[in-house]
Design brief:
Structural class: mainly alpha
Largest sheet: 2 strands, antiparallel
Distance between the termini: 42 Å
Order of helices and strands: HHHHHHEE
Length: 172
């Protein structure tokens, strides 16, 4: 009885795809620029969360709570995005841009009299910095993605890999 050769799990298309994504994430996370952006974004989020008490507008309760929540969300969103889930980094960076834009307009949008000079100045500066860092992170994710030889296709498979990725369908 003849035996059929079994292929190694190491050559399975899904394993190769996961390995390629991991290598791409490693390249993105180990650049000094990516590490600097991550660190600055984390510190920006922490500052935004604590800013009502640092700058002294904690008496504006709705804006203080908003800054606390948005600051924590921004810090968590931007800390580790390059290394942990590379394929989501681009989306997370755009969400960080939205949080930065929200921080800029929050003093005027939140109900009540939030427009003190300290609160407005603080939110505009921190929001602009958060927006800028989100744009830089998004550009870095895009640049690393286009520099890789294999990048995710729309169907979830890998362009340049097996047709259709793991779905057994032709690539778009």
């Amino acid at each position: 009885m003849a035996t059929t050769p079994h292929s190694s799990i190491e050559t399975h298309p899904d394993i190769l795809d996961m390995r390629a994504r991991h290598e791409m994430a490693e390249r993105a996370a180990t650049t000094p620029r990516a590490q600097a952006v991550e660190t600055l974004a984390f510190l920006t989020g922490l500052y935004l969360a604590a800013s009502p008490w640092i700058v002294g507008f904690d008496n504006l309760r709705p804006l203080a709570v908003n800054n606390l929540i948005v600051g924590i969300a921004y810090a968590l969103l931007m800390s580790g995005g390059f290394g942990r889930a590379y394929e989501r980094t681009h989306s997370m960076a755009w969400a960080a841009c939205a949080l930065g834009a929200w921080t800029i307009v929050a003093p005027w949008v939140i109900a009540g009299d939030m427009s003190t000079t300290r609160s407005v100045t603080n939110n505009i500066i921190v929001g602009a910095l958060a927006l800028l860092l989100g744009l830089v992170a998004s550009a870095a994710a895009r640049r690393t993605d286009s520099a890789g030889s294999r990048r995710p296709s729309r169907a979830g498979g890998m362009a340049g890999g097996t047709p259709g990725g793991d779905r057994g369908m032709p690539a778009p």
